Amino acid sequence: EGPADMTTKSSKERLIAQLTGPLAVLLGAASVAAITFVALHLFGRDDIANVAILYLFAIAAVSLRFGYRASIAAAITSAICFDYYFLLPYHSLAITHGRQLISFGGMFGTAIFISTLNEKLRKQARVARQNERRSEHHYALIKALAEAESTEALCTSAARQIDLASNASTT
Fold it and tell me: pTM higher than 0.90, yes or no?
């Protein structure tokens, strides 16, 4: 396994890359809809504290799986579903108490915070993978140069490794 193998994406990475944009937002909203159905049957309308926590958990899971935009869409969807299904008057988006706004703000703020942390973690992992690839290329270059038996072999090996590294960095 050499540096060229490091540039290929795993099937999981390809699948996650495909689940971006509108599809990820749709899946994020659908997961909140599923959580709403489960919460209605599991907790009913009386245990809204646990329902709110369940929504936050769903938003965190969407953030981990689908990214920032999808988690923001899930946060908005969860606030709407929470108000519509679990707060009086039921089946209405009316805000009857100021504390409902505080609850929505807290849920949305927590969702943004979790999503931002996950996005930063995702970027750090991407940078770490790039650094790992770069280190693999450097190692391959040093190994090839050390194994060269003549100046001509040294130059040929160096040119080949530089070409491999430049081709890998453009993919």
Answer: no
